[in-house]
Structures are given as C-alpha cells and as structure tokens.
Amino acid sequence: MPADHAPTTAGQSVALEGVTKTYGSTTVLHGVDLALDPGELLCLLGPSGCGKTTALRCIAGLEAVSAGRVRIGGQEVTDVPVHRRDIGMVFQQYSLFPHLSVAKNVEFGLDMRRVAKAERRTRVGEMLEIVGLSHLAERFPHELSGGQQQRVALARALVTRPRALLLDEPLSALDAKVRVRLREQIRAIQTELGMTCVFVTHDQEEALAISDRVAVMEAGRIAQLGTPEELYRRPASSFVADFVGLSNRIDGELSGERVLVHGAELPVLATPSGLTGVAGARVTAYVRPEHVRLGAAGNGAGADGADAAVVLSSGFLGPIRRTVVQFADGSTLAAQHGSEAEFRAGERVAVAFAPEAVTVAPRI
C-alpha cells in the first residue's frame, strides 16, 4: 500500500440501542446497547451461538429487529432496507462472480449505482492499489489464492465508499499464516480510510490483535466491552477471563480481598456478589499461564509461597515454552515462560505466582 495514498472515505458512527431479536419463543439478542465512534474498529467476539452474527445482521438490515433501534451516522435505519443503508459487507464466503475479472468484480457495486464510467475506472484502480491487487486486475477468481479472493471481496465492499464496513468471520477459511497477514492488511486499510468497522470473530487472538475495542458476547448479551488490554488484564467475569486468552482454573479460598492458591496469596480484581466478607469461601481463581513461575525444586518448593509439582510436559513454541505441571492433589497447571528455561517430564519443580490481580468465581 503506498504510504502517500490519500484516504478516499471516512466512516460514520454505528449504534445499537436496546436491540432485541427473537425467533418465536427464542431470544437471541437481549436488549443489546453498542455504540461505535466514526473510524473505530470493533470486534464482536464470542463462542458459536452467542448472538454476534445476529447483531451484525441487524446492523446490516439482513435481520429485522424485534425491539430497539439501529443508527448509522446518527440516522435511524431500523426499518431501512439493506440496499439503502450504504454499508459494505464481507463474509466468510467471498461470493465473487466467477465469470467476471477482478476489476469487474470490484466495479460491480459502482455499476449498480450508475456511477459514471470514468469515475468507476478511477475508483477501481485506487482500490486495487490499496489492497495490492493492481497487477491481477484481469485475472478471474479461480486464478487467485484464497487470500487474494478475500482482498477482492474487501475491495468490492469498500469501493462504494460505504458509511460502515461489516465483516462476518472473513478470515476463518484461510490458513494460519495467510490469516495473520490479511488481518494486518485489513487493519492497515481500515485505518488509512478512516472506515468504521464491525468485525465478527470467534478467534480471541484475532480480536485482540485487530481491534480498537472488543465486545465479548455471552448468550445474547455483551459480557464486557473494552480495549483488548482491558479485557485481558481486567476481565469483568469468569466467562471473559476464561474466553479471552488462556487461563488456569485453580481452586482457592478467599481471604479478605485476596485469594489463597497453592500456598500463595493473590489480589482479587473483584469479589463475586454474595461472597463479600465471607472468609474462607471456596472459589475458582483464573490465573494466566505467564503469571506462573517455575523453579528448581531445591529452591524453595513448598515454602515462601511456592508449592511443589511434577512436570507432565513441556512444549517448545519458538520464543516461549508452555509447561504443564501436576500437584500432589492431581490438579494441573500450565505455565508460559521463555524458551531458554527447559523442564523435562517427571522433573520436580517449585511453583509460585506473579503478584497479579486475578478474577475469581464461586466454586461449582
């Protein structure tokens, strides 16, 4: 993408206000409130069936809301048909026209809007340059890789200069390396154009890497809305702590505003409702693997806040290692550490914890 390429469009605000969606007796969205600033990229993140795609389809007009309102650019569009909402959409299935060239695929939306031929050529050329496909303008979809086809679909969605761009798991069909490269390109293009973007994914790494903010959805509601850093470092619930990133679930006991786990006392982000002031309450603590410290068993195992365990496995992951250990009670724990520290299966180690605040939930 040329560094001196001038932005060709700017996004507008997008909002859901108390949006509810029901199918018969089943409620898929429960009064969802969500507001995006112009030019913001927000990910709807959650497991299958949480309502994230339904929320996106309500913004697009592909689903009629049962209650609430949808606004784009401050204008209510709740009852406006999809073709009049002036949005761009990219889906997991690229849906390119097989009989049209790359350039003609990108041009299609402009042709439907009866844009003058000279302007169509100019805008198609600009967009192909932005997505890095100028040299493939005359190719046909079957002559392209999956990543190239997805960039054509992105260019087709953006060339009409929509008020917002909606992407529904657009990278899930691609292999890992292409997915990472393309998500970085999407982010760069979105930033360059100032485009407001709603990006649906179930991949938490993808959401954290690409977003200004993330809305984690659970059973048709927003469990937490915040920056990637806020969600990872200060999850608002055990669901968010468990879904965003990796967490060890460790049995513990509350002691004031701290939790006792394997001989260590860790600060608690927030005491669960109903457990405030309940000394010795049995809870589950969610501890990130990178906050687990492993050392030689002879250097304090079973003392000074460290507990003893036996290594079950240790895997090399390039710059880091992931080591799983087992305690005498049979419980296991994963630690993430620098790859220079190598532990072997069967080795006895000392386990301690970084003094980071953790999320806790009543033990079930």
UniProtKB/TrEMBL annotation:
Keywords annotated in UniProt: ATP-binding, Nucleotide-binding, Transport
EC number: 7.6.2.9
PROSITE patterns attached to this UniProt entry: ABC_TRANSPORTER_1, ABC_TRANSPORTER_2
InterPro entries in UniProt: AAA+_ATPase (IPR003593), ABC_SmlMolc_Importer (IPR050093), ABC_transporter-like_ATP-bd (IPR003439), ABC_transporter-like_CS (IPR017871), Mo/tungstate-bd_C_term_dom (IPR008995), P-loop_NTPase (IPR027417), Transp-assoc_OB_typ2 (IPR013611)
Domain annotation ABC transporter: ranges: 14-244
Pfam families per the UniProt record, alphabetical: ABC_tran, TOBE_2
Record GO terms (molecular function): ABC-type quaternary ammonium compound transporting activity; ATP binding; ATP hydrolysis activity
Any single GO CC term annotated in Swiss-Prot or TrEMBL for this entry: ATP-binding cassette (ABC) transporter complex
The keyword Zinc-finger is assigned to this record: no
PANTHER family recorded: SPERMIDINE/PUTRESCINE IMPORT ATP-BINDING PROTEIN POTA, SPERMIDINE_PUTRESCINE IMPORT ATP-BINDING PROTEIN POTA
Protein name, per record: ABC-type quaternary amine transporter
Organism, scientific name: Leucobacter luti
